[in-house]
Please model this.
Amino acid sequence: MAAERLQKLIARAGIASRRGAERLIAEGRVMLDGVVVRRRGVVADPRRQEIRVDGTRLRARRKPRRYLILNKPTGVLTTRSDPGRRPIVMDLVPPSARSLAPVGRLDGASSGLLLLTNDGDLAYRVTHPRFRVPKIYLATVRGLPGEAVLDRACRGIRVDGEGLRLDHAEVIARFPHRAEGRRRSRLRIRLLGGRNREIRRVLSVLGHPVLELHRTAIGNLEDTGLRPGRWRNLRPAEISGLRRAVGLEAARSPRTRPPARSRPAIGSRRTAASGSAAAPAPHSPFVVAMDGPAGSGKSSVARMVARRCGLGYFNTGASVRAVALAAMRQGADLDDPAVVRPFAFRVLLDPEGRVFLDGVDVSVAVRAPDVSRGASRVAVHAELREVLVERWRQAAGAGGVMEGRDIGTVVFPEAPVKVFLDARPEVRAARRSSDEGGRSVAAVASELERRDRTDSAREVAPLRQATDAHRLDTSDLTLEETVDRVVAIVDQARAGKPEPGPTH
Ligand code: DC
Model:
């Protein structure tokens, strides 16, 4: 697809008619490379540029997708080219597959399954820990590691400042030679993450260096019968199984989840994910839901947690405020749901925590006290919330930290991490008053009290703590302390460890 007018590309993608696409552009709902386009006639190339409609990416027509697995022998490098002309995996696949990319690393000294594909979305998800695609390895290690060592490997250790851990490890064979230096064990290991040389580094630090490492499975793909150095195309059922597991294809029924473990043999108290109701379903976005009343510290905490965890940050309160701002600018009746609802289509959130109204960044303008009051009034309309909730879900389609009032209860009730921040009323009022340039604390306090009452008493999506949320009272915590606690909860959920349970 060459460069063409935006409305044509949008229409071709089946999102709207040409005329409808022009309207979407005029309403500021179309972004090109992160910038809202409102002019007619802008030309774009979908292969090189990112076009989003209401936050959802428009896909360029692709080459047919191809997937193959290779049983990589040791001594062959996982790379597409090597200036040193050493053997590489591309030497082992047919010329027609040389444009494919290997998915993830399998270092030169290791052998086993390697997926190669031109399906970039799948490749990203199979390697990203958030999608929890299990990879199974057989490792031969020096010595006879005991329970305590394997427990430590699964609880996690720091190596060169990096937190590393195995998701599961069990001994499947021991070779107790009389000479200590020749004792060996064979382990079966499951990884959900896959940092650089993670298994080798963890076991080496624990005194059991890896002598041989072979990967036997990636999600639902197994190497049954594939001799070293040989490859095969994936079967259609394998492709759709893998795409389903990472959320790229719908499950057969909306309630169907992939089985928690693809291999029956693995599962023990050492399996970090076992029994964790909080571990996210592999296909659900990794959302950190952060709710709480005004002045509890949500925005600062959410922004910093997002940065530390490498996630996007979405401020849903800002979009309620932007609706109020738009309505107020037009002198519209804030109490009339039918009048207020259409403004929601003009508001966009980005993963940097900013809010755009008709393509213009209004993140600062929406903080004005009169907009706060207006936001509280429009937030009660069910008709408006219906549109906003849908847009919030779209915005966080790939996961992120989302703050608001009803994220853990309504927007993402299945979020793997839910935090409810609170603070004593006088602390919240003091914080808001300094945010708002030192307005009198007493005035802010009474306004906060009124807003809390409206937010908590409204019929739709009232401010309420989800039963499975972690409650944090931030009154006597510094910002850094609060962030540290939330990051610890996120890390725990990402690692799939059983959580200590909600705190109240
Ligand atoms: O968090 P904030 O103060 O920026 O929120 C502005 C208003 O929007 C506030 O009255 C609560 C409301 N709101 C809501 O109803 N639902 C959300 N998810 C976020 C905010």
In short: The longest helix spans residues 441-457.
